[in-house]
């Protein structure tokens, strides 16, 4: 990408402003050096929240309300990217590219930057590779909004299971993917006594499964994904005293204070 193309593309990215996107504030083009300056987010990444940092003993499974809040934040931010006049795509969705804001709102970073990648470079690490849609695992294939939807679905599966995609979860589990996710969720939360809505978890799982359809044309648009997530969050929760009617959840201490949408200005 030459200097003019770089500057034009960065200007497009720099004009994006949304509460669920990490803002690009400045850039530098000097000879062979290119620098981008983004807002600083002190609360770390979603990856660290789910899996723990290198210095910790590991992350805690997220409560279902946190899963839904994070999912709605990210669907809202991704839809904003997709609605740019140029039809921009994120191109590199993964939990390490989600940062947590001052109020623990979830914000995408690294969006639209895949165009700057050297096509001859090797970025085929297991985690990065299996977030990508099957049609985009060839490094020569350009990113697309349909591929973003697939990656978003993998991210939802990571939220639901606490498992990073070190293998191709979709291909490995196939039609058994929903059963596998439910079994993981049950195993990781069975020791907690806090009730969760199994119906809401299943609804979010169904959204994730729709997103990771192997055929790009079968994947929903992000506006449809966001609508489904919003509807899932709005549904009232009926907690039964019968333990068989719900599956327990476990809070992450870090995200217990996540605010509701009506407490945030957009």
How would you portray this structure in words?
Residues 1-234 form the Protein kinase domain. Residues 236-266 are annotated as: Disordered. The protein is 39% helix and 9% strand. A hairpin with a 5-residue loop joins strand 3 (98-100) and strand 4. Residues 239-266 have low confidence and may be disordered. The strands form three sheets. Strands 1-2 form a two-stranded antiparallel sheet. It has nine helices and six strands; from the N terminus they run H-E-E-H-H-E-E-H-H-H-H-E-H-H-E. The protein has 266 residues and is mainly alpha-helical. The protein has a single domain (42-257), classed as Transferase(Phosphotransferase) domain 1 (Transferase(Phosphotransferase), domain 1), CATH 1.10.510. The longest helix has 19 residues, at 64-82. The radius of gyration is 19 Å and the shape is globular.
CATH architecture: Orthogonal Bundle
- Tell me the radius of gyration: 19 Å
How many angstroms separate the termini?
34 Å
Class computed from helices, strands and strand pairing: mainly alpha
Main sheet summary: 2 strands, antiparallel
- CATH homologous superfamily (4th level) name: Transferase(Phosphotransferase) domain 1
Low-confidence regions: 239-266
Beta-strand residue fraction: 5-15%
Quick structural overview:
Helices cover 39% and strands 9% of the residues.
């Amino acid at each position: 990408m030459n200097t003019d193309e770089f500057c034009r593309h960065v200007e497009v990215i720099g004009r994006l402003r949304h509460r669920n996107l990490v803002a690009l504030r400045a850039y530098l083009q000097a000879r062979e050096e290119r620098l981008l300056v983004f807002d600083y987010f002190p609360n770390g990444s979603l990856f660290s929240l789910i899996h723990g940092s290198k210095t910790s003993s590991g992350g805690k499974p997220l409560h279902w309300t946190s899963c839904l809040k994070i999912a709605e934040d990210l669907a809202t931010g991704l839809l904003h990217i997709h609605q740019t006049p140029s039809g921009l795509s994120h191109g590199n969705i993964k939990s390490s590219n989600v940062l947590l804001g001052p109020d623990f709102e979830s914000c995408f970073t690294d969006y639209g930057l895949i165009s700057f990648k050297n096509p001859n470079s090797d970025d085929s690490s297991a985690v990065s590779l299996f977030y990508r849609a099957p049609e985009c695992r060839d490094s020569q294939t350009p990113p697309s909004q349909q591929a973003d939807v697939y990656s978003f679905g993998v991210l939802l599966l990571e939220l639901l299971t606490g498992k990073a995609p070190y293998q191709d979860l979709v291909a490995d589990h196939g039609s058994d993917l929903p059963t596998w996710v439910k079994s993981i969720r049950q195993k990781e939360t069975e020791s907690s006594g806090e009730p969760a809505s199994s119906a809401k978890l299943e609804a979010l799982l169904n959204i994730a499964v729709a997103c990771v359809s192997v055929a790009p044309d079968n994947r929903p648009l992000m506006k449809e994904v966001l609508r489904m997530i919003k509807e899932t969050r709005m549904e009232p929760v009926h907690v039964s005293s019968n333990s068989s009617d719900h599956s327990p959840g476990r809070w992450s201490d870090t995200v217990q204070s996540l605010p509701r949408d009506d407490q945030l200005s957009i």
